[in-house]
Amino acid sequence: MFVDEIELALLNFYRASELHGGLILGQMVRRTRDPELIMQLTRHSAEEVNHALLWTETIVAVGGKPSPVRDTYQNRYVEVVGTPITLLEVLALTQVFERRVYRHFMLHLRKPGVHPIVARTLQRMLDEERGHLSWVKHWLDEQAREKGREVTDVMSRYLAADQRVYDALSIQYGFRSAA
Ligand SMILES: [Fe+2]
Ligand SMILES: [Fe+2]
């Protein structure tokens, strides 16, 4: 069983995007005072960096080579909506992104002929992603109670951007839209 070049490039894109996400969340910790939030962001950041490690190990295990790329999911978002600056923007985008990743990894897992090592890594990501989705959603719900429309506006802006980014990726890597 082997993983073709297109799928290897996709796994490398996953790897780079996990790392990018982890680094952004880690940066947010330095601007946070709330001890609970420091804890959540630090854990989330660490888990994303660990996901980058798991993809790196997966790529090597199926005979590929991890390579540096500028192209990440996060950079594609920035091209469409600009750089998220505030914690609200970063966590709103994180929520939109992680919902997408969850659906996309399920789709990838169901593709016929997925290498068992890749399948195992996808399954593990799906398990850990649930925790990320739920704490960020909880935080966003609290913000929405305080700030109202500001939160829903940011979310809908990012949802629209996500659809554009994902559509382009679907064409590039030949998978159908999960939306
Ligand atoms: Fe992740
Ligand atoms: Fe995550």
Characterise the protein shown here.
This protein is 79% helix and 0% strand. With 179 residues, the protein is mainly α. The protein has one domain (5-173): Ferritin, CATH 1.20.1260. Helix 2 packs antiparallel against helix 5, helix 3 (73-81) crosses helix 6 (149-173) and helix 5 (116-147) packs antiparallel against helix 6 (149-173). The protein is globular, with a radius of gyration of 16 Å. The chain starts with a helix and ends in a 6-residue tail after the last helix. The protein binds fe (ii) ion (2 copies). Residues 18, 48, 51, 125 line the site of one fe (ii) ion.
Brief write-up:
It is built from six helices and no strands. With 179 residues, the protein is mainly alpha-helical.
Average pLDDT, rounded to a whole number, is: 95
Query: What is Rg?
Result: 16 Å
Can you tell me the residue ranges where pLDDT is under 50 for at least 5 consecutive residues?
none
CATH class: Mainly Alpha
Considering DSSP H and I runs of 4 or more, what fraction of the residues is helical?
over 70%
Give the number of domains.
1
CATH topology: Ferritin
Order of helices and strands: HHHHHH
Name the beta content range: under 5%
The CATH superfamily is known as Ferritin, core subunit, four-helix bundle
Q: Give every kind of bound small molecule, once each.
A: fe (ii) ion
* Total number of helices: 6
Shape: globular
- Number of β-strand runs: 0
Global structural class: mainly alpha
Specify the biggest β-sheet: none
- For this structure, the quaternary state is single chain
Ends apart, CA distance between termini: 30 Å
CATH architecture: Up-down Bundle
